[in-house]
Amino acid sequence: MTQPPPSPPSPLSPSSPLRPSPPGSPLSRIRVGSAPDSWGVWFPEDPRQVPWQRFLDEVARAGYEWIELGPYGYLPTDPAVLTEETARRGLRVSAGTVFTGLHHGAAVWERTWAQVADNAALARAMGAEHLVVIPAFWRDDKTGAVLEDRTLTPEQWRALTSLTERLGREVRERFGLRIVVHPHADTHIDTEENVTRFLDATDPDLVALCLDTGHYAYCGGDSVRLIETYGERIGYLHLKQVDPEVLAGVVAAGTPFGPAVARGVMCEPPSGVPALEPVLAAAGKLDVDLFAIVEQDMYPCPPDKPFPIAERTRRFLRSCGA
């Protein structure tokens, strides 16, 4: 197994206005970061996305220490290169991200594992401890074309849960990472009913949850209630808000997720829902080490738009104690 590189020193000094929460505070074990998604990055390559160097420069300048890898291939995939680029900016990697379609059963395992292994190897080499797992979409996020039924059969649920457990076991054994499954709009793990069904059917030792507050609100869920009810399953957070007025129109029109994002359904905190202060407070009560990664879905977006939002969001989260 590839050994992770030494962790770079924190760029935050005790006198910095962006210093971490003081030891003993309710949020002292929550580590805040951001991700390429907050810079409008959805794909490894796209001319409408900012270059990776600009993302790294700006995410550090906005006051974040932790980042996710984003779509595999956007950031350099050579660990030596990426280690140098992140370390000189005072950045560290919290997780990689993969998309899966495990409800399709054993036939997709080898194809799934091939992309998981690449992502996991890079994440581990960068010193990360998590792999964010996002289920496949049931409709195309650009065209809205229905790809399959939005409701899984009992057989598909069994395939989803059993193969996710297998994924958790093999990722841990081969790479030393913990998988955190990300409920997501337009997937089969979305609403409170489906999220709790998934959690109840999977082994807590193998499968944790990446609670994305924006996606969960988008699908009608209550993040605070989920944390309070399934706290032991929360392994990772994505901090995000939705604009309730835009969301109401999206739901009424049956708009796919991609066009909904283009309409601004995911908005800058603290202007949307859910309120992040009670989410962070509930997470702080778990008294566990927890990443809280800002992800404001913006695709496509003007290249100069993300940085001011990222900087303001970091200040807002600091005002919440995180």
Automatic annotation (TrEMBL):
GO terms for molecular function: isomerase activity. InterPro entries: IolE/XylAMocC-like, Xyl_isomerase-like_sf, Xyl_isomerase-like_TIM-brl. The keyword Mitochondrion does not apply. Residues 1-25 have a biased composition (Pro residues). Keywords: Isomerase. It holds the Pfam family AP_endonuc_2. The keyword Isomerase applies. Residues 1-30 are annotated as: Disordered. Residues 56-319 form the Xylose isomerase-like TIM barrel domain. This is Sugar phosphate isomerase/epimerase.
